[in-house]
Design brief:
The chain has about 325 residues and is an alpha+beta fold. Helix content is about 30%, strand content about 15%. A hairpin with a 2-residue loop joins strand 2 and strand 3.
Length: about 325
C-alpha cells in the first residue's frame, strides 16, 4: 500500500505529495489543530534575494500611490493615498498582482500554493493580494485587537466547518508583539462563527515571526493585530484565497492579460479564474477555455467519465 497513490484520491494525491516534499506536515497539523501556523523562512522556498526585491517593490508602489517615500526604520504617513479603510497608522495597498510581475512570482511560490491547495481542497482562487502598511500607533479601527474571521458568514452568522478561505501573510519585516504582529485565538476555527464584541481578546496570542516567514491561517480563525509600539514599519504581503464558489474581492478574471497567462504555468490561470466558464452570454459556456487550463487530474477524471458515457451510448468520446 502506497499513500499518495490511491486511485480514488487521484485529484488530491498531488497535494499530499507536495506537503511531504516541502516538509510541511507539522504546519498542516498546526492548521488543523490551532487554525494557524508559522512557516519559517527556510521553508518558504523563496529564491535568494526575493524578500529584498518584493520589499523594495512594495515600498515603490506605496510611494507611487501616496506620494510618501517610506523607510523601513521610520514611521509612515498616508500622504495623498485615498483607498479605504485606513487609520492614522495603517493603510492597505490593493490589487498588487496587477502592479508588478514579482507578485505573479510570489503567487506561484510552492509553499504558499500548497497551503492554499490543502485548505481549499485544490479549489482555490486568488481573492486579493494586498500589503498592510503599518507604523507606530493603534492601527485598528475602533481600538482593541480587531478580532474577526475572514470567511463570509451565512445570514445567521454561522460559518462552514470546512474552510472557504485560506489567508497568508508574508512577513517583510520582523513580527513581534511590540511591532504590532498578528493576534490569533488558537482553536477558534472550530467554533464556526465569528467573535462577539469583546470576545476572544483574553485568549489571543501574538504570532511572532522573523521577516521572511509565512503566517498562514484557516478562514474561520479569529484574528486581528496588536498595536505597534515601536518606530518603523510593519510590512507584509497578504494573499487571500477563496473557494471557487465564492466571489473574489479583487477583479482578476477580466483584468488579467493574456500576456500574464502566457508567461505563467496553468496553475496561475486557475488561480485568477481564467478557467472559469461561468458568466456566459447567448454563445454559451467557453468549455475549451476551461479545458485548456484544467489540472491534469481533473482532465483525466472527465475523460474517464466521458468514455463511460460514450460506451453506454456507443458514441466516441472527445476530450481536448
Amino acid at each position: 500500500m502506497q499513500f499518495g497513490e490511491f486511485k480514488s484520491t487521484e485529484t488530491i494525491n498531488p497535494i499530499y505529495k507536495r506537503i511531504k516534499e516541502l516538509e510541511l506536515e507539522q504546519h498542516i497539523l498546526d492548521l488543523d489543530t490551532y487554525g494557524f501556523t508559522v512557516i519559517p523562512p527556510e521553508k518558504v522556498a523563496a529564491p535568494d534575494g526575493f524578500l529584498e526585491r518584493i520589499t523594495e517593490t512594495v515600498l515603490r508602489i506605496a510611494k507611487e500611490r501616496s506620494g510618501v517615500d517610506l523607510k523601513l526604520d521610520e514611521n509612515g504617513s498616508v500622504g495623498s493615498y485615498k483607498a479605504q479603510p485606513q487609520t492614522g497608522s495603517q493603510y492597505l495597498l490593493y490589487y498588487l498582482l496587477m502592479a508588478d510581475p514579482i507578485f505573479e512570482e510570489w503567487l506561484m511560490n510552492p509553499t504558499l500554493y500548497t497551503i492554499g491547495c490543502y485548505l481549499l481542497h485544490g479549489q482555490q482562487q486568488l481573492s486579493s493580494l494586498v500589503s498592510f502598511v503599518k507604523w507606530k500607533g493603534d492601527g485598528v479601527m475602533g481600538g482593541g485587537l480587531g478580532l474577526h474571521t475572514d470567511s463570509p458568514p451565512d445570514r445567521d452568522g454561522r460559518l462552514p466547518t470546512c474552510s472557504d478561505i485560506s489567508n497568508a501573510a508574508y512577513c517583510l519585516t520582523d513580527y513581534t508583539e511590540e511591532n504590532g504582529c498578528i493576534a490569533m485565538v488558537p482553536g477558534s476555527h472550530r467554533y464556526a462563527r465569528g467573535p462577539n464584541p469583546g470576545e476572544g481578546i483574553k485568549d489571543a496570542v501574538p504570532v511572532e515571526a522573523p521577516k521572511g516567514s509565512l503566517i498562514a491561517w484557516h478562514g474561520n480563525t479569529w484574528h486581528g493585530a496588536f498595536p505597534k509600539k515601536t518606530d518603523g514599519l510593519r510590512l507584509n504581503v497578504t494573499t487571500y484565497m477563496c473557494h471557487k464558489r465564492i466571489k473574489t474581492q479583487e477583479q482578476y478574471k477580466q483584468g488579467v492579460t493574456q500576456e500574464m497567462l502566457d508567461r505563467n504555468p496553468p496553475e496561475f490561470a486557475r488561480l485568477v479564474g481564467a478557467d472559469d466558464m461561468m458568466g456566459w452570454n447567448e454563445s454559451g459556456p467557453d468549455i475549451a477555455k476551461m479545458m485548456k487550463y484544467m489540472s491534469p487530474e481533473n482532465k483525466k477524471l472527465i475523460a474517464e467519465r466521458m468514455a463511460e458515457m460514450a460506451k453506454a451510448t456507443n458514441e466516441p468520446a472527445e476530450v481536448s
